[in-house]
Protein: Protein kinase domain-containing protein
Organism: Eutreptiella gymnastica
Amino acid sequence: RALHSREGCFLAVKEIEINRATAREEELRLLTREISTLAQLKHNHIVRYWGTATPNQRYIHICLEFCSGGSLSSLLKDWGAQEVTVVRKFAIQILLGLRY
């Protein structure tokens, strides 16, 4: 987690070790493709991409919108099965993002 200095909001930071990622050309290609795809996605139901940073030669940081509620996976792990109305709301949001 990091703080965006200009916007004053929290970001989620995905840290990738460059040495490991570049060990294989295919992994580097997939990483580049992921960043390119994230940069193009702009939708209310898709986590926002804020940018990429290379704080040093060892790591690359992919900065994304911070979701304070956590992931759907952690919600299910912490709270267990949900009521149909809750599941319906999540399903609609997921489908809207996928439709985009």
The mean pLDDT is 86. The helical segments are 18-21, 25-40, 72-79, 84-99. The chain has two domains: 1-68, 69-100. Residues 69-100 form one domain.
